[in-house]
Amino acid sequence: MGAITILQGGRLVDPVLGIDTIEDLWIQNDRIIKSESATPKQARVYDVSGCLVMPGFIDMHVHLREPGQEYKETIQSGTRAAAAGGFTGVACMPNTNPVNDCGAVSRFIAEAARDGFAKVYPVGAISKGLRGIELAEYAEMKAEGVVALTDDGMPVVDSQLMRRAMEYASSFGLKIISHAEDPALSFNGTMNEGYVSTRLGLKGIPTISESIMVYREIALAEFVGVPVHIAHVSTRPAVELIRAAKSRGVKVTAETAPHYFTLTDEAVEGYDTHAKMNPPLRSEEDLLAIRGALSDGTIDVIATDHAPHSELEKDIEYDLAANGIIGLETAVPLGFEMVRQGVIDVKRLVELFSSNPAEILGVHTGSLQEGGLADITVVDPEKEFVYAEEAIVSKSVNSPFVDWNLKGKPVLTICEGAVTHDHSGSVE
Ligand code: DOR
Ligand code: ZN
Fold it and tell me: pLDDT tens across 221-240, in order?
């Protein structure tokens, strides 16, 4: 008969199937099967009453740092953190060393990911070495399984190169993910340009350094006739551009990260390097616009931009510290905070974390449908926990949320029928 796992008494929410119901979920080997009345003797039974049982969450923007910076994170440690955070799949950015700009590196990542705790979808580089000069090897990378292309971390400044990238990528069915930043406008900036940067005496990054490039990407995508995805949207002007483009029918999609709907540039106060990332934390006005965009569909995805760095790069003066924070283990509770505040409902949360990223990347998503692959995220929305540094699963601890009291804990993560994270304490 094969191994049977039963999730008992949970609230099943799947926006694609249109279900929201309290029911048992049966898994046999790697698939969801029809529930039966009698529990088989050998079955593993989890009591998930009070919990949400949802299609596996996908984080479409993480930095796994392998190859090249394994002291910050590895595919093993990063996917372990993903599973602990409730994710069954992650898309990893190409700014590794060497850069994922050719088939050999894509293959290395795909092979290393076989022993991981979550599915890994490698994203290839737009340009060789992320240098923004010549296009990378799209055909080779596609053959090794890359799901999209981006120079994330570096903007593609040359509009002609971006146009060619969109055209060439579309012939392989690959989408461009834009790191929207005009480096002339953000030059030397280390935080949001505004009142706080003035008070702290730090060089600011204006909102227009993002929005001007968001506008260019929309214009290029419309001109070329291809879809484009905007990474880590942080500003109100960018939200407004995306909203207007969508209403005209342009195929633009967008993601934001939990820190942009949770924190403002006030968090940089005290020159806290754990509040330093690119794009930077913005103003209250931007934060409210991001929340509005999550709720009205302008922003399609919550992705973490999980960017691990060691203490060497973070425990130094603010100006010199590396950009980025880890996010895999805090995204789900911070997302549930939006539910508690009435910004989004649970159905929308599942779209933002699961069905939308899967559709944008063109990858299989977990579904609660009978016969479907069992990629499942189980969250106890009432469970509170302290995000203690000692308990962090990622290899790095650069998070502004350390010691925060969080609510909404991923208690069980199942990837193709295999339990990759179990904090349920309820297996019989
Ligand atoms: O904060 C960031 N960290 N922004 C990026 O664009 C790159 C990332 C990283 O790789 O650390
Ligand atoms: Zn990134």
Answer: 999 999 999 999 999 999 99
Report how far ligand 1's centroid is from the alpha carbon of 260 (Å).
14
Nearest to 45, CA basis, from 366, 374, 412: 412
CATH number of 57-361: 3.30.1330.10, 3.40.630.30, 3.20.20.140, 3.10.150.10? 3.20.20.140
Say what the pTM is: 0.98
Q: Which listed ligand is nearest to 154 at the C-alpha?
A: 1
Identify whether the C-beta of residue 156 lies closer than 8 Å to the C-beta of residue 140: no
Catalytically active residues are 305
- pLDDT tens-place string over residues 112-136: 999 999 999 999 999 999 999 999 9
Tokens encoding 237: 């002007």
Pinpoint the residues of the chain covered by CATH 3.20.20.140: 57-361
User: What does each C-alpha distance from 398 to 67, 126, 324, 377, 393 come to in angstroms?
Assistant: 20, 28, 8, 25, 12
**278 touches ligand 1 (CB under 6 Å):** yes
Q: What mean pLDDT is predicted for residues 12-21? A: 96
Q: Are 236 and 265 in contact (CB under 8 A)?
A: no
Burial class (CB in 10 A: 0-12, 13-18, 19+), 248: exposed
Ligand 1 center from residue 193 Cα (angstroms): 18
CATH architecture of 4-52+372-422: Roll (2.30)
Q: Of all helices (H) and strands (E), which one includes residue 363?
A: none
At 37-93, the pLDDT tens digits run: 888 888 999 999 999 999 999 999 999 999 999 999 999 999 999 999 999 999 999
Which residues share a beta bridge with 20?
13
- Cβ contact 325:73 at 8 Å: no
Alpha helices in 171-276 (DSSP H): 183-186, 195-200, 208-224, 236-248, 258-262
Residue 96 tokens read as 């590794």
Atom of ligand 1 nearest to the CA of 325: 1
User: How distant, in Å, are the alpha carbons of 19, 96, 179, 200, 205 from that of 195?
Assistant: 46, 35, 25, 9, 12
pLDDT digits (tens, 9 = 90+) for 351-397: 999 999 999 999 987 779 999 999 999 999 999 999 999 999 999 99
The gap from C-alpha 156 to its chain's centroid, in whole angstroms, comes to 21
In the reported structure, the alpha carbon of residue 93 is separated from the centroid of ligand 1 by a whole-number distance in angstroms of 10
